[in-house]
Amino acid sequence: MRVEIWSDIACPWCYVGKARFEKALAAFPHQDAVEVIHRSFELDPNRPKGDTAAVIPMLAQKYGMTEDQAKDAERRLGDNAAAEGLAYRTEGRDHGNTFDMHRLLHFAKEKGGQDAQDRLIGAFYRANFAEERSVFDDDERLIALAADAGLDADAARAVLADPDAYAEAVRADEREAAELGATGVPFFVLDRKFGVSGAQPAEVFTQALEQAWGARSPLTVLAEGAADTTDGDACGPDGCAVPGA
Amino acid sequence: MRVEIWSDIACPWCYVGKARFEKALAAFPHQDAVEVIHRSFELDPNRPKGDTAAVIPMLAQKYGMTEDQAKDAERRLGDNAAAEGLAYRTEGRDHGNTFDMHRLLHFAKEKGGQDAQDRLIGAFYRANFAEERSVFDDDERLIALAADAGLDADAARAVLADPDAYAEAVRADEREAAELGATGVPFFVLDRKFGVSGAQPAEVFTQALEQAWGARSPLTVLAEGAADTTDGDACGPDGCAVPGA
Question: From the CB of residue B65, how many other CB atoms can be counted at a distance below 10 Å?
Fold first, then answer.
């Protein structure tokens, strides 16, 4: 069974939602048969690299709040995070372009599989939401986080130095999100059959996992080929169908 | 709609099957909505790199034929290829380890998307089945084919120089093939719902495309999140759900 999670590093509900999903997954009896893939979704894809700003004034402006009200909203988000055991720095965070982090998440999957990707997105979230040093516009920071996640630092540096590296993979994820109808994140897709949008309570994820598990179906094989027939010819480990005279 | 094609470069029926599938796809009214992804399947994953041998004696030994009978079998395969407009060199081909070609196909998808991947697998097939110069144990040959497919030659060289590059992606494809029940190739999977095994006639692919098109279904959304609720909180392009006091 495959769960794909579209998210953005700059999305606090993605940070919280990942923990809630993982709580459900940890208690799911078939957890070993569940493959989790992180997919890219930039909330603000047009924000240029280098355009990094403080979160509190942005929130105040965006929602027509005072800065104190924005701080209160961040504190309540922090309470949601704390309820999942997550650290959350309610003041002093910044936000910016996340494209490079998404590129590195694809690099992580490519080089280290899903476990490395999961470690890296966890590290990005912690760094962004819980630690003082910014994750934006600081390649060395991202490289250090990649290395902590078990990836090769020089290879991560090379990815950051080449703006095309994994760029297409990020955009392909974003196109797919649109095709699947996702307009916000986190967005969870189970076996391409079921969708769960938002940082739902763990119980909702439990129900979704159970429903998707029950709906698993083998492929309907419409036409069967073989290495020993003359119709639907195929090759297998023991050889290829030999065409008759 | 997504069609995944598991295949191996060393598999003549994959070469023929790709052309038959493409004939069906070219006549399919919704072809623009079909995404084609090539997935890796090594027929002989334990064959070491460098263990390259001539095809005809191998066929003769494997099937208990004389070499003349093996040549006849290859000529009949060539007739099948010719019927699809494909060149096929019936004598003098060799076979060997294809892992590096599969790694490059993942590199192609990463760097140039599905079109580049499709061009490259087409180039590998032509080179292996229709051209004199071997594709095995010849990095410069593979790099030249990658460059012809529009990829960066130096980047392709770097992939070949690093045995870990895209290795995990190849293995993940192979694990998925096993999970889906594929024991031979070509193996076509439509929207992870329908399977077609073998180089079936184009009409079979037409029927499979039609059936999968009819079975397309949007995701069943089990829980809807929003950027403006307090349950299933989410972030969208216009901002994040602000937790209430």
Answer: 16
DSSP H/E element including B16: helix B12-26
* Beta sheet of B194-197, edge-to-edge order: A220-223, B194-197, B187-190, B2-7, B35-40
- Structure confidence at residue B224 as a pLDDT band (50, 70, 90): confident
Q: Name the burial class of residue A89, with classes exposed (0-12), middle (13-18) and buried (19+) by CB atoms within 10 angstroms of its CB.
A: middle
pLDDT at B112: 83
Q: Each residue of A159-211: pLDDT tens digit?
A: 999 999 999 999 999 999 998 999 999 999 999 899 999 999 999 999 999 99
Neighbours of A135 (CB within 10 A): 26
A32 close contact with B: CB closer than 8 A: no
CB hemisphere CA count around B121 (13 angstroms): 32
Residue ranges of domains in chain B: 2-240
B222·A208 Cβ contact <8 A:
yes
Is residue A94 a contact partner of residue A87, using CB atoms and an 8 Å limit?
Answer: no
Rounded to 5 degrees, what are φ and ψ at A194?
Answer: -120, 140
- Its ipTM equals 0.86
The nearest CA of chain B is from the CA of A144 a distance in Å of: 20
- Per-residue buried b or exposed e for B184-222, using 16+ beta carbons within 10 Å of the residue's own CB: bbbbbbbbbbbbbbbbbebebbbbbbeebbeeeeebebb
Query: With an 8 Å Cβ cutoff, is A58 touching chain B?
Result: no
Residues in A touching B111 (Cβ below 8 Å)? 164-165, 168
Q: Which of A192, A199, A235 is facing B225, going by the closest CB pair?
A: A199
Dist CA A10 CA A8 (whole Å): 5
**Distance between CA atoms of residues B200 and B197, nearest Å:** 7
Whole-structure pTM value: 0.75
Query: What are the two backbone dihedrals, phi and then psi, of residue B198, each rounded to the nearest 5 degrees?
Result: 95, 165
CA-to-CA separations, B141 to B84, B125, B127, B144, B150, in angstroms, rounded? 26, 13, 9, 5, 15
Q: Within an 8 Å CB–CB cutoff, is residue B210 touching chain A?
A: no
Give mean pLDDT, residues B23-30: 97
pLDDT in tens, A93-146: 999 999 999 999 999 998 888 889 999 999 999 999 999 999 999 999 999 999
Tokens 């910044």 found at: A94
Question: Cα(B162)–Cα(B167) distance, rounded to whole angstroms?
Answer: 9
Q: Residue B46: closest CA among chain A residues belongs to which residue?
A: A237
What span, in angstroms and rounded, lies between the C-alpha atoms of B108 and B114? 8
The CATH fold of domain B2-240: Glutaredoxin (3.40.30)
